[in-house]
Design goal:
The protein is mainly alpha-helical and about 100 residues long. The chain contains 2 helices and no strands.
């Protein structure tokens, strides 16, 4: 070991091994890799936000459609009741004539 550093780190810092260049290249590769990961994370976070917004909008739209459907079913039932009442009145008029 060099000083108090663990063996696996000491070779990177030991100028006698010539590992300084390798460490710099490795650092550049790690930095590029991390930048790539950060870009992907940012893209995923943006996509997630967009999907959450879309999901929220779709849930609101779904609730509105359910409400509209309930109103239409109620109107349909009212219309059915009125038509049945008219048919009954017509039948009763027909029987009286």
């Amino acid at each position: 070991m060099t000083g108090s550093l663990p063996r696996r780190l000491a070779w990177r810092l030991d100028p006698a091994t010539g590992a300084a260049y390798g460490a710099r290249m490795e650092t550049r590769d790690l930095t590029a890799g991390l930048q790539g990961l950060l870009a992907r994370i940012d893209a995923l976070a943006t996509r997630m936000q967009r999907m959450q917004d879309e999901n929220r909008s779709l849930r609101v739209q779904h609730e509105q459609l359910l409400h509209e459907r309930a109103q239409l079913l109620a109107k349909q039932e009212q219309a059915r009741t009125r038509v049945e009442a008219m048919i009954s009145r017509l039948k009763s008029l027909e029987q009286h004539t």
